[in-house]
Structure formats: structure tokens, C-alpha cells
Amino acid sequence: MSESPRDTDPQVLAVDDVFGQPWEAPDDLRITGVSTVVTAPEGIPLVVVKVTTSDPGLVGWGCATFTQRWRAVVTYVEEHLARLVVGRYPGDIEDLVRLVRFSGYWREGPVGNNAVSGLDQALWDIAGKRAGRPVHELLGGRVRAAADTYLHASGRTVEECLDHAEELVARGQRHVRLQVSQPGWGTYGSPQLDGVTDVHAPYPHGWRVGEYLTATPKLFAAARERLGDEIELLHDVHSRLSPKQAVVLARALEPYRLFFLEDVLAPEHWDRLPEVRAASPVPLAVGELATSLSDAARLVLAGGVDYLRCHVSDIGGLTPARKLAAAAELTGVRTAWHGPGDTSPIGVAANVALDVSSPAFGIQEGHVYAEAVHEVFPGALRIEDGWLRPNQAPGWGVEVDEAAAARFPAELSGHDAWAARVRGLDGGLLAP
Ligand code: GCO
Ligand code: MG
């Protein structure tokens, strides 16, 4: 009986063995552990992955934040992912993320992608720390000094929303997203109104698309009156429109020169985006609901999008996102990575590393964290005069204070069901 190569040389992979180092590593640094930290300093559960190495001083952190299914991500990382990569050389980032992705045979959805992202970004952090350089330098270095951001202004009324927008402009923002509440339980991104839309309807809290299509251009007309022509204005539909309704809205918004109009269609209907975009006089932003690299790539390559705004951890981390940034650069699409409060400060650092190193950068969505988040994540980036500047420290330059994180335990707050709350007057659920 012949010997298995694995019996004589631990560097050689046996055919049925995926749990080993497949080639000779350049040194003896190895991954020794992969675990998660879940913390909710702002009430939103943030999941980060910690990768430890055989060098006790060298750990990496990655964003794996999927607030709606955070417990599933934790289980994936700790039960399935860790055992595949412990013992491996941490510099083989592409191979390690492919190993995890393909090990399950069926491709990942958002739970698996967030888990892989946690590993991926932690390995980039480790690579930066070993090189003694910030991650953006590993991506080729900066092509700009900083990333310009937009923040969200919202209100129950147009006036309240524009008051909020004025505050943001006074703080130095050049770009603001405007959202106003709709009657019933028909909108989000702005305060929930309590009202009943139609007492006689089967579902009295239902959303009325006609009212939305009329009210939204009025919001932007008022915004141009009050904020002037220089401020860049954005709006997020959060899906729920048909392709034709999307065109009606985009045309009605043309006089107000939007920077972009986001998520006009639900992902189930993304095949119709090229036709909507061809008829839309305002740029379209799409992508935060993409949960696979190939879906996101199709958005770029099929001509359905002006601004690609994936949630980087939802597509599997920095490694897939940099491929999309390259595809965007080559096709004239711009990036606008998703970055609201359900992105951890590690994820924000990854967004900004992409922003400053990619010629395809368009805009970065920002979020002003509560001070408690900065206590848990020392080094977390702060928006100054609307700009996000990358850290110059090695890796992400953002660490996790685990004792502080433990003071803010996460709960199942109801956010895990929130996206399914919008229904029409007939009671039919409307896809976010
Ligand atoms: C955005 C998004 C978010 C999402 C949120 C879901 O453009 O910032 O639409 O506000 O609704 O990330 O948890
Ligand atoms: Mg959005």
C-alpha cells in the first residue's frame, strides 16, 4: 500500500483533505482562532470577527454585520468557518475565502457572505499590520485624500426634513439624502407616522404609491428653494415601485438635479433596471440588497446602475468588493458603498480604503456614531466637514475593546422583522 503524501509531508494536501496548508508557506505564522464579538452600543447589533494568529500580538478584525440575522452569522463563523482555516497561513487571503465559499458547495447567501467577510477583512487587517501599512496602501495606495460623504436628513414633514438637512449642511455636508414620512406605515428612513391611511381599506395602514409619487417631487422642489442649487440631493425609494412607476418618479424629479435616486426596484426585478435607467433622467443607485458578487457584477455589466452601492460584508468582504470597484472603473460606473449605522467601524474603514484607492469612487454613505461606539472601537473614523479620511495606522487602524463591547449586549430587538412591515391598502406585503 502506498503512503499518502500527507503522511510524509504535512505541507502536501491529500485529495480528500481540505483542512491543511495546500502549499509551502513562506514562514510559520498561522491562524490559531476565529471567533465573533457582538455588541450593540447604539442598539444596533454589530458583529465583528476576530482572527488570532500564532504571533500573540497579531490579531485581525473584520466586519460581519448582518443586523437582521446576527445570531446565524455567529453560528456560521464559530461552527463552520473556524475549523476550515485554523492552522492556515493568514496571507493566502484569496484562497482562504474561496475555500470557505466553496466548502459548502451551495454558494453563500447573506449569512455566509457576512461570515466570510469577517474572515476576509480580518486577514486584510493582519496583512496591513504585518506590512506596517494601512490597507489602502496594499490596494495600490490613494488616488484621493479623503472620501466625500452624504448623511440622512429626515422628518415627519417637509419642513422638519429640511430643518434637519440645513443642520447637516451647517456641519459641512455637501451631500444630503432627504426622506419624509408617508401616511400609514408606508415608509422608512424617516419617523414612523401613526396614522391610518384609509379607514375603509382592508389594511388601514397601507401605503399609497400614488401619494408617494406626488409628494416626493414636492419635497425636492421645496429643498431646492430652501437649500439652493449647490447642495447635492439624494433619495432612497427602498424599492416597492414597478419599473414604470420608477420612470414616472425619475422624470418628475429631473428639474431638481438629484445626485442619485436609490433602489427604485426590488432585487427580484433588477433585470428591468437597464430599461428604467435608459428612460431615467436622474442617476440610479442600486446594490445594497445584492448578496452575491455575480449579481452585483451583473448590475454593473448589464448597464442597470450609475452608482453601485453594495453592503461590502453582504457580498463577502473587501476581496469581492475590490473586483467590483475594478469592474466599475472599467465601465464608467461609480461606487457608493452602503454605510449606515448597521455597518461596524471596521466595515467603515474597509469602505474608506476602497473609496480612497479606487478611481471609480462616487460618494460614501456616512453615519455619525454615538460616542459609545467610539469607546468600543478605538480608532473608528469620524466624519469631519463631510469628509472621511482613512487611518494611517497599520491595517484598518481600528481595534475592538472587548471589555467595552461586553457592556453593550445585543438583543433581538424586532429589527429582524422590520423590513416586512410595508403593505398596500389591500394588505399585500410590498417587497423592500
Ligand atoms: C441605506 C439603507 C439603510 C437600510 C438599512 C437596513 O440606504 O442606508 O437603505 O437605511 O434600510 O441598512 O438595515
Ligand atoms: Mg438604501
UniProtKB/TrEMBL annotation:
GO terms for molecular function: magnesium ion binding. SMART domains: MR_MLE (SM00922). SUPFAM superfamilies: Enolase C-terminal domain-like (SSF51604), Enolase N-terminal domain-like (SSF54826). GO terms for biological process: amino acid catabolic process. The lineage of its organism: Bacteria, Bacillati, Actinomycetota, Actinomycetes, Propionibacteriales. Residues 158-283 form the Mandelate racemase/muconate lactonizing enzyme C-terminal domain. This is Mannonate dehydratase. InterPro entries: DgoD-like (IPR034593), Enolase-like_C_sf (IPR036849), Enolase-like_N (IPR029017), Enolase_C-like (IPR029065), Mandel_Rmase/mucon_lact_enz_CS (IPR018110), Mandelate_racemase_C (IPR013342), Mandelate_racemase_N_dom (IPR013341). It comes from Auraticoccus monumenti.
